[in-house]
């Protein structure tokens, strides 16, 4: 069989998951010199761009500017996007093998990691990722309910998502009204009774995952006073020694900013944001109605591993804080795809540099690849997926050169289009998205906002003049 | 970034050898797998030492009969072990300070992978590239 990749017989690649990774992979593929590649990018939601649309905070518009690069990729004549087409439900792996030479899974991390403590499922306890998807207008989360009539909320974790949630809970209605937050979320947050937000980190200030600009932002909120516990921002001996031995300006600055917050006096703003360090929740306590009313915390100390990493270890000291709303933000977690080998505890597809492995013999499965969070775990920033996707594409090119590709019976792009039209007649194309994008932005312009999002799939169909 | 991330895309394959096997066997394994070190394990699969190409080179200059000697006589016994939560930056420092190039990783007492200095360099490069890419995109954005 002649190697695919020519005008007469292009290399056909299916990418499942149209977030940043899917676009970076498509870009690397379409830019391969002397190779004719056709890329079809699938996503289960109608709109492309993954967490850039549904995860990045509404008050962080600049981060979303990366979509301009994705639009450029989508403009390539040999690129197609199919939204509302779900792998497993609308198209199966068997279908894809009949139409493509290579399949790449870039579905990200669809669920959250649990804390693994009693009371985690009480009413009022939620994954932060659900709250984020809700306020960002993700159609599948639109109808979730969060009780914002509580006065005290706790966010467990101090990473990027945790900080976003705490900040959004502390933003004034005026600040939120200028963003692309979903309308229903704006209304709900306008009526919020939240007075105190806790951000809980299990390690110390030197180890906390949030970035310096994010911490500074917390100190510049219009209507919330930030505070820390002075003893908790004093460096413990191990952290101080580590910083002295391996001086690191960023970490030193981080600690400096946080220690600065210890000197702040409340200025009478409506809300208080309290950042706690070296505490871990061990139990959520509920009332008779099954609602969370308090959280039991253990104080931690830091201990070095053999390589010098400072990890938290519980002491015997506990405390209880009253809270009515809890958001756990201790990581995203990958979800297995039907018929794709998965590493349960690590939450990733079983792979070696992006080649999907057979679980029985640990050998690469012909034609199957993975990239992004579902390959390496949920870490890094948006751009981190670009070199990750490149590594996978390089493996794909090596395998192509060696003739290790699938042999699709129906490689012609019209064949799979006919299949998709049959399985999901109400799918969305990239031109559809660009129309919806334009409508969202123009609605926003009228309201002084970056955009006003569609949050129901039916509304998207109506806007496109489809029943 | 921690070691778990590096292992996620590398797999759990660790090439191991028993202490009573010969240097000849060790050399064949290093060559076949194109790697720089073998983890020496006991009957229960637990790491009890590490033998690297550097250990073999050093010994070979002292003893030309090295091929038939046992791994146990040449291996390094004080092996630094990592855990999945170890941060890349700490691993990087440890490798530099202690002049080691391989870190076997254990989880709940079991050997789950090995991280080489090459893996660390690549992961840091990718992390750096990713952050620069993200920052450049944002800085160049219009408004």
Description:
The complex is a heterodimer of chains A (467) and B (143). The model of chain A has no long low-confidence stretch (mean pLDDT 96). Chain A has helices spanning 20-30, 51-54, 67-74, 93-99, 128-135, 160-170, 173-177, 183-190, 212-218, 230-233, 237-245, 249-261, 373-376, 385-401, 413-423, 430-447, 457-463, and strands at 11-16, 37-43, 79-83, 102-105, 111-112, 125-127, 152-156, 196-200, 224-228, 271-276, 279-286, 292-304, 310-322, 325-328, 332-333, 342-343, 348-349, 351-352, 355-357, 364-370. Chain A has 467 residues and is α/β, with parallel strands linked by helices. In chain A, helix 1 packs across helix 3 (67-74) and helix 1 crosses helix 14. In chain A, 33% of the residues lie in helices and 22% in strands. Chain B is built from 6 helices and 5 strands; from the N terminus they run αβαββαααββα. With 143 residues, chain B is an alpha+beta fold. In chain B, strands 1-2-3 form a 3-stranded mixed sheet. The mean pLDDT of chain B is 91.
Task: Give a brief outline of the structure.
By secondary structure, chain A is an alpha/beta fold. Chain A has helices at residues 20-30, 51-54, 67-74, 93-99, 128-135, 160-170, 173-177, 183-190, 212-218, 230-233, 237-245, 249-261, 373-376, 385-401, 413-423, 430-447, 457-463, and strands at 11-16, 37-43, 79-83, 102-105, 111-112, 125-127, 152-156, 196-200, 224-228, 271-276, 279-286, 292-304, 310-322, 325-328, 332-333, 342-343, 348-349, 351-352, 355-357, 364-370.
């Amino acid at each position: 069989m002649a190697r695919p990749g020519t005008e007469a017989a292009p290399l056909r690649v299916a990418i499942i998951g149209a977030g940043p990774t899917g676009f970076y992979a498509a870009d690397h593929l379409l830019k391969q010199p002397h190779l004719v590649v056709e890329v079809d990018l699938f996503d289960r939601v109608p709109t492309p761009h993954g967490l850039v649309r549904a995860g990045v905070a509404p008050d962080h518009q600049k981060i979303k500017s990366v979509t301009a690069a994705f639009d450029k990729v989508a403009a390539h004549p040999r690129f197609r996007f199919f939204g509302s087409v779900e792998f497993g439900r609308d198209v199966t792996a068997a279908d894809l093998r009949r139409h493509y030479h290579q399949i790449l899974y870039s579905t990200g991390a669809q669920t959250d990691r649990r804390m693994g403590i009693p009371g985690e499922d009480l009413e009022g306890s939620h994954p932060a990722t659900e709250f984020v998807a809700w306020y960002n207008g993700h159609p599948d989360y639109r109808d979730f309910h969060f009780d914002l009539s509580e006065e005290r909320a706790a966010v467990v974790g101090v990473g990027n998502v945790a900080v976003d949630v705490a900040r959004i809970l502390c933003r004034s209605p005026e600040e939120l009204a200028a963003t692309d937050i979903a309308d229903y979320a704006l209304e709900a947050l306008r009526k919020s009774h939240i007075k105190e937000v806790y951000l809980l980190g299990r390690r110390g200030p030197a180890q906390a995952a949030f970035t310096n600009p994010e911490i500074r932002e917390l100190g510049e909120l219009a209507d919330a006073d930030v505070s820390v516990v002075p003893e908790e921002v004093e460096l413990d001996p191990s952290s101080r020694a580590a910083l002295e031995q391996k001086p690191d300006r960023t970490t030193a600055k981080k600690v400096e900013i946080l220690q600065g917050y210890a000197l702040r006096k409340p200025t009478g703003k409506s809300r208080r944001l309290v950042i706690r360090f070296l505490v871990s929740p061990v139990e959520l306590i509920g009332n008779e109605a099954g609602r969370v009313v308090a959280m039991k915390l253990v104080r931690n100390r830091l201990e070095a591993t053999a390589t010098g990493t400072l990890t938290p270890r519980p002491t015997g000291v506990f405390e209880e804080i009253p809270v009515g709303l809890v958001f756990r933000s201790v990581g995203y977690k990958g979800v297995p795809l039907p018929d794709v080998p998965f590493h349960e505890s690590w939450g990733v597809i079983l792979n070696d540099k992006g080649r999907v492995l057979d679980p029985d013999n640990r050998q690469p499965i012909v034609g199957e690849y993975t990239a992004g969070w579902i390959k390496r775990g949920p870490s890094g920033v948006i751009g981190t997926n670009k070199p990750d996707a490149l590594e996978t594409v390089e493996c794909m090119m090596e395998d192509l050169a060696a003739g290790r590709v699938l042999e699709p019976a129906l490689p012609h792009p019209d064949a799979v289009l006919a299949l998709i039209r049959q399985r999901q007649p109400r799918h969305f194309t990239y031109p559809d998205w660009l129309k919806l994008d334009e409508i969202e932005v123009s609605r926003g312009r009228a309201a002084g906002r970056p955009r006003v999002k569609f949050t129901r799939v039916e509304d998207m169909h109506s806007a496109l003049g489809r029943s | 970034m921690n070691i778990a991330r590096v292992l996620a895309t590398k797999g759990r394959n660790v090439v191991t050898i028993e202490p009573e096997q010969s240097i000849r066997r060790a050399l064949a394994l290093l060559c076949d797998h194109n790697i720089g070190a073998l983890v020496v394990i006991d009957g229960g699969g637990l790491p009890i030492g590490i033998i690297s190409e550097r250990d073999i080179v050093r010994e070979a200059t002292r003893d030309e009969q090295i091929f038939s000697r046992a791994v146990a006589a040449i291996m390094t016994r004080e092996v630094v072990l990592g855990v999945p939560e170890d941060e890349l930056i700490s691993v990087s420092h440890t490798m530099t300070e202690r002049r080691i190039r391989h870190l076997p990783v254990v989880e709940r007492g079991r050997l789950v992978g090995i991280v080489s200095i090459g893996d660390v360099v690549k992961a840091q490069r990718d992390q750096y590239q990713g952050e620069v890419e993200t920052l450049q995109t944002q800085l160049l954005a219009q408004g």
